[in-house]
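Service request form, structural biology core

Requester: graduate student, group of Dr. S.
Request type: structure prediction, single chain
Budget code: on file
Notes: please return the result as C-alpha cells.

Sequence provided:
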Amino acid sequence: MAAVRPSRTDRWWRDAVIYQVYPRSFADGNGDGTGDLAGVRSRLAYLSELGVDAVWFTPWYLSPLVDGGYDVADYRAIDPAFGTLDEAEKLIADAAELGIKVIVDIVPNHVSDQHAWFRAALAAGPGSPERKLFHFRPGRGENGELPPNDWPSQFSGSTWTRVPDGEWYLHLFTPEQPDLNWSHPEVRREHEEILRFWFERGVAGVRIDSAALLTKHPELPDFREGVDPHPYVDQDDIHDVYRAWRAVADEYGGVFVGEVWLPDAERFARYLRPDELHTAFNFNFLTCPWEAGRLRSAIDDTLAEHAPVRAPATWVLCNHDVTRTATRYGREDTGFDFAKKAFGTPTDLELGTRRARAAALLTLALPGSVYLYQGEELGLPEADVPLESIQDPMHFRSGGTDPGRDGCRVPLPWAAGEPSFGFSDAGAGSEPWLPQPAAWGRYAVDLQGADPGSMLGLYRAALRLRRSTEGFGDGPMTWLPADDDVLAFERTEGLVCVANLSDRSTALPPHSELLLSSGPLDDDGGLPSDTAVWLLR
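Core staff response, request fulfilled:
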C-alpha cells in the first residue's frame, strides 16, 4: 500500500503539484474502453508514489460528451460512463487517506443543451421566464433570419443558433453549449449551491473553466476588433460573481483556480485579489516557445503580475487542450497557438523529449504551484489520431482543417504487454474510446517504473526532491549571471536551477552538490544543450 504523505498547511495551494486527470483517458476500471472513477481509484497508489499533492479532474458530470464533458447536463450527478456519485465520494475519501486533495471542474459560462433549464426554455417559448436564464434574442434582417450580432465563436463558426419559433440563442462554443445569463440572480444562486454541493463532499478546490467569459455586455453589441471594453470577455461585473464565490469557498476552506486568458496583466491580476480567486492558470508560460529570452520574459511577467495581489504563480507545460510538450518542443515553432495547429507538422521527437525533460526541472523549480497533465510524466508525444476516429468538435467546426485536441487525450499506457497497454481491465475486449498508437507500449508505466533514467523516473525523483528539499515552492527567486540562452536562478537555501537552451555546452556555477539532472553531463562536467540541473551552492 502507498504510504500516506505528510499533511500540508491550509496554504497548500501556494506551492502544490497538482496532477490533471482527464477521466476518459486515465484508466478504465470496468473494461468498456472509457476511463472511469473505478480506474482512477485503482491507480491512486501510482499518483501517491509519483508525489503529487492534489488531483484536478476535468468534468465528470452527467453530459452528452459533445465537448469532452464541458457540456454539463447535471452538476449533481456523475456521468454513467464514469461511475456514480457514491464512487466519486469514495474516490475523494480514498485520495484524502493518501494525502491527495481533489479539485473538480466547474463550467459556469454554459450548460449542455440537454440541461433541464435549457430544455424548459425551448419548451416555454419567447418571452418566458425560462428563456431569461439564457441569451435568447430575435434575429436581425427583414424576417429575423440574421443572427442578433456578429460575435466570433471560440470554436469557429457562428455563436448563434435559431430555434423553430424564430428566436436565436447564444453559444460562444458549440450549439450544444448554450450560454447562461449571468445577470439573472437564479443563475448565480444555483452555481453557489453547486459549489456548496461539492465542497460538502470533501473536494478541496474548484477549477473554473473559461473564467473570464461569464458576464456579457447587456446590449450584446457587435464585436469590434481591438475596441474596449470587449463585449463578452472580462466584463467588470464578473468580479461580483467571484467575490460571492470566494465567500462560499471560505466557508469550507476551499480554493479556486481560474482559466483566465487575458493579455492585460493588470486586468488579469484583478481576478487574484484577496477576495476573489486564489490562483489562475499561466497561459503566457504555457504557450511560450523554447527560447531563453522569451521564457525569461514570461517568468518575469508572471511574477510581476502576481506580486501586487500577493498571489502565487502557477506553471504548466501542457493540458487537455494543448499539443503535448515532447512533440511541440521538437518542432521548428516550439510555441503554441490554436490558430496555427495543422495536420502533418514535422517534429523531432528525440529533441523534443530532451527539451521536455529539461523543461520539467525548470518548471518545478519556479516559485509557486505546478500543474502536471496526465501522461506528461511519461513523456507521451501527441498522437496522430486517424481522421475517422477524431471526436473533438474543434476539428469539425473548423471544416476539418484543425486536427483538434484528441491527440493529447489518447488513453494512457500502463502495461506494455497487455491489451490496450493496460488501460482497460485485462479481461475485457473493448477497444479504447480513442485508438492508441502501435508504439504506445514503449511509454508504459511498468517499463518506465523500472528505469530510473526514464521520464517517469525523472519526475518521481524531481517531485521527491521538491517535497524534501528546502527552497522549492512558494518564495523568492533571483536570476544569476549566465551565458546567452542559458537560464540560471537561485531560490532560497542555496538551491540553484540552470537550464541550457543554447546549442552548445555551458559551465555550471560553483556548487557543493548536484541534486538532479535532466540528462547526462559532459565528461568535463559541462551542461549540454537542452539540459537542466538542480544544484546546491
